[in-house]
Amino acid sequence: MPTSTSPDSIKERSTQAAVAIRELIGKGMRPPRAGVIIGSGLGAVSAAMTSPSVVEYRQIPGFATPSVAGHRGRLLAGDLAGVPAVILEGRYHYYEGYTMRQVTFPTRVLAELGVEMLVVTNAAGGLDPAFRPGDIMLISDHINLLGDNPLRGPNEDGLGPRFPDMNGAYDPDLREAARRVAAAEGVELRHGVYVAVSGPNYETPAELGFFRTVGGDAIGMSTVPEVIVARHAGLRVLGLSCITNRALAPADRAREGVGAMTVTHEEVLAATASGAAKMARIIAGVIGEMAR
């Protein structure tokens, strides 16, 4: 059974990874206050970072290389809106065959680097009939239907409590800041509950009906494990989904007059292009408020 001092300790491995990142970037790296995890096709968010230093995931101990198109597998360290930050450009997923602890290891490393807040982004299908491709949804809560949890197994008390409370997992003050920034930028911001499923297949009509019935507004295959670990580590979290397609339940399709619906990953990546710039402005604005 791993302990906080064993070679298999998450704390020990995340410390090693953080040390390696600092050494690779050099003395110019400022202690980061914010971390951002970028989802499928949202690499344009990185353009908001000033003069970033770049480290490939393969150079970082314990990191894996994403195998999914739209996830570059790079860590960027620099300034976002004048705030020292780290961007994880791409993630790897449970459906790729990684364990939950592997999927969330980069989040542990961000905490070890000293970030105070984490922005998680994703590409998601819109369960709410009002949502359209390119919309940005501010995540108010989530439903974990992945069938697993990154905190399962022995708890390392130095990382966080055995039973972390997930009330307010998506920080109310950060959400309010996102609303202010979106209004100032003229971006219509949707709000809703994100449902996480394991994938990699897209959902059946019956499944979409179920997810909508239980309160879901958008659906995807990521994010929730990272949020759980971030809250376990005491980080404040802001979550944003770029709606890439209408994932309507049969009843909603009938009401909307929409026929059979199909989706491909290529379409998901194409749809994120219209939302990435809006998302970047919101992220930079919220992080910028940290410096005030």
Q: Can you put this structure into words, describing what you see?
A:
With 292 residues, the protein is of the alpha/beta class. The protein has one domain (10-289): Rossmann fold, CATH 3.40.50.1580. It is built from eight helices and nine strands. A five-stranded mixed beta barrel has the order 5-8-7-6-9. Mean pLDDT is 90; it is low at 1-7.
Q: Distance N terminus to C terminus?
A: 45 Å
Q: Output the helix-strand order.
A: HEEEEHHEEHEHEHEHH
Low-pLDDT segments, ≥5 res: 1-7
Provide the helix percentage.
Answer: 25-40%
For the largest beta-sheet, the strand count, sense and barrel status come to: 5 strands, mixed, barrel
Which of globular, elongated, flat, extended, rod-shaped describes the shape?
globular
Corresponding CATH architecture: 3-Layer(aba) Sandwich
Count the helices. How many?
Answer: 8
Give the class-level CATH name. Answer: Alpha Beta
**CATH superfamily, please?**
Nucleoside phosphorylase domain
CATH third-level topology: Rossmann fold
Strand order of the largest sheet: 5-8-7-6-9
Tell me the count of domains.
1
Structural class by SSE content: alpha/beta
Strand percentage, roughly?
Answer: 15-25%
Radius of gyration: 18 Å
Number of strands: 9
What value does the average pLDDT take?
A: 90
Key features of this structure:
5-stranded mixed beta barrel; Rossmann fold; 8 helices; alpha/beta; disordered N terminus
